[in-house]
Amino acid sequence: MFQTYLKVNPACPACGVDLARYPADDGPAYFTILIVGHLVIVPILFIPWVWQGPTLVTVPVTLSFLAVVTLGLLPIVKGAFIGHMAYLRATSDQADRHTADQA
Length: 103
Description:
The chain has 103 residues and is mainly alpha-helical. It has four helices and no strands.
């Protein structure tokens, strides 16, 4: 599905679906932040080492861990987001028509 880290192929190499029709602008980033915030950051706050450890060690270790988890999860969420848009048949053509109708 991806050419590079987050760049989507114009067409699916397996089935030929036109992936360029499904814009995934900010949705995957928002969902990734939501997932990491609820499933990673909240449990980290219950670890005593985070509160009792030295700040110069705790902050870089915690931020590095969060960056790795977020960047690892982002392509998965983007793929799921595009897959869900394809399932709903929500294309950029529909968004353009909706915007033109409102103007």
